[in-house]
Amino acid sequence: MSTAASDVRRDTSEEWQEYYQRLGKKNTAALWEVLSEIVPVQPRRACVPAMWRYEEVRPLLLEAGRRITAREAERRVLILENPGSAGQSRTTQSLYAGLQLVMPGEQAATHRHVASALRFVMESDGGYTTVNGERITMQPGDCILTPSWTWHDHGNAGDKPVIWLDGLDIPIVNLFESSFFEHSPREMEPVTRPGAMVAYPYARSRETLEGLYRASAIDPCHGVKMPLANAATGGSTLPTIAAFLQILPAGFRGEPYRATDGTIYCAVEGHGCSRVDDATFCWKQHDVFVVPSWCAVRHQAESEAVLFSFSDRPAQKVLGLWREGQP
Ligand code: 1HN
User: Fold this and answer.
1) d(CA 315, CA 48)
2) Cα 154 to averaged position of ligand 1 atoms, centre (Å)
3) CATH level 3 topology of 203-325
4) Which tens digits make up the pLDDT trace of 233-281?
5) Which of 306, 301, 308 shows the shortest CA–CA distance to 250?
6) Distances (CA, A) of 46 to 1, 294, 313
7) 77 lines ligand 1 (CB under 6 A)
8) Ligand 1 lined by 287 (C-beta under 6 Å)
9) Above 70 in pLDDT, residue 7?
10) Would the CB of 313 count as within 6 Å of ligand 1?
11) What's the CA-to-centroid distance between 120 and ligand 1, angstroms?
12) Which is the most buried residue in 147, 167, 244, 296, by most CB within 10 A?
């Protein structure tokens, strides 16, 4: 470890302390005391690698279903909180993820907020989400977007629990202190945008991925990884969030990769293990794991496997912050 100038300059003598106190009184502070902390040589992260096993979290979510209604809760969600930043309602430094439950016959209220959302469906037979008045059916594996400030509600017309993974850019919105939220005064919002623009049915994306898999070379780190492009703009899935679907061939032994976009993964098909820095997460369908910023990840798959993932990559790219590399 190299010693930063600020480490050697730090002076605790009474004379300096008295000076620092006078600085504090005038709302000033000595940069040389904090520089290496506020501008680290490489990302210093609070978030840590973590995994949530579906078979462990699902019963807790169903228990919430017995304890509180979707109406009472506004949204009945268990936040997948990063253990490195407990109590901060975040999964990576910049993104929030949670598992949401809608019980048969339930309806979650219509509201809108500045934060953008995506939903990745785990269990649904009759679940739907409404975006700006357009009802979109939820099927397992579907990804559905709720762009910033669009009205949305959720319902379950079936007779089994509907469960999905939510991804929102809440920590980004709150970093900028630009959050607004409101309830709809109406029961249903009039249709203002075509729903096809915000829905990625799994059957369709899986077919596209399969085509790519047959036609392209296997990336040594990612297998075959495909972004879910925004149908309206051709750009990233959402302005702040990019979602991906990737296929790992049976027996895949990936090389390590790291990037500054902390990424949330959800296993869709097959099983395998991902090594994230020193942690190893062996996953199967619906398990969720997080690869924090600049942590090396290396995926391995026993059977052919499909992973869904999302990160803040487009936000970092537009700000000129994004970096990647092979450690
Ligand atoms: C929200 O509106 C949803 O609409 C899910 O399903 C999670 C977390 C925080 C704030 C709003 C939803 C949310 C949320």
Assistant:
1) 21
2) 10
3) Jelly Rolls (2.60.120)
4) 899 999 999 999 999 999 999 999 999 999 999 999 999 999 999 999 9
5) 301
6) 19, 12, 18
7) yes
8) no
9) no
10) no
11) 13
12) 167
Tokens of residue 259, six digits: 């990037």
Q: Is the CB of 269 under 6 A from ligand 1?
A: no
Task: Match 């820095």 to its residue by tokens.
Answer: 277
- Residue type, position 204, single letter: R
The superfamily CATH assigns to domain 50-200 is Jelly Rolls (2.60.120.10)
Distance, in Å, from the CA atom of 134 to the CA atom of 144, rounded to the nearest integer, reads 12
d(CA 298, CA 255) in angstroms, rounded, equals 6
Distance of CA 325 to the CA centre of its chain: 21
Ligand 1 centroid distance, CA of 75 (Å): 6
Place of tokens 């949670």: 98
**Tokens at 62, concatenated:** 């169903």
Structure tokens at 322: 């994004």
Count CA atoms within 13 Å of residue 223 on its CB side.
Answer: 28
Q: Output the average pLDDT for the chain.
A: 94
The answer to whether the 50-200 and 203-325 domains have the same CATH topology is yes
Query: Which residue is closest in CA terms to ligand 1's atom 13?
Result: 75
Q: Would the CB of 119 count as within 6 Å of ligand 1?
A: no
Tokens of 166: 């939510």
